[in-house]
Amino acid sequence: MIICQHSKRNTPLVKHLKDVYWQSRRVADRLGVLSGQHHLRAYNKMVATLD
Question: Tell me, what's the pLDDT at 42?
């Protein structure tokens, strides 16, 4: 998901991303997340576990 999309609370137009968007938005709201930051894939350790 794009951080800008979350900060402006714009729902994605693509059907397969809508569920992911709403799940992440609910979790972020529940945790009180106010802002986010993009991490480059090279520095994202969670993504490295998927490779």
Answer: 74
- Could you list the residue range(s) of the whole structural domain that residue 38 is in? 3-48
Question: For the segment 9-43, what is each residue's pLDDT rounded down to a tens digit?
Answer: 777 888 888 888 888 888 888 988 777 776 677 77
**Based on the structure, what is the number of domains in the chain?**
1
What HEC string does 8-47 produce? HCCCCCCHHHHHHHHHHHHHHHHHCCCCCCCCCHHHCHHH
CA distance 46 to 16: 22
